[in-house]
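#onboarding

Welcome to the new folks! Below is a worked example of what a typical request in this channel looks like: someone posts a single protein sequence, and someone else replies with the predicted structure as tokens. Don't worry about understanding the tokens yet, we'll cover that in week two.

Example request:
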Amino acid sequence: MFCDTCHWYTAGEKICPHCGAQQSPKKVKDMFNLPGDVSILDSRFMDAPLVDTPMPAIETSAPPPAARPIPPQRPAPPPQGMKFCGRCGAKANAASRFCAACGAPLI
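Example response:
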């Protein structure tokens, strides 16, 4: 239950522990509702007729055409006389047998 004055949770006490205001007796259906809230147990809410509103029309248009996948492009070969390390990717001279950056053998 909540206080009629400050809306503090009173846990069913007759006097609010927060502001000291005397509390009016509450009905069971209002135990967890603040004053002015609509309770799901409230007869005005439960007995109200359901509003029959028509559903909006669903547009059934053709799906957009599927995009063609872009074929993967191969990377351009390195210029003549240039190698790249397979481990670290550093540039290497074509005559080198080992990478100068990491020491891996060049193929």
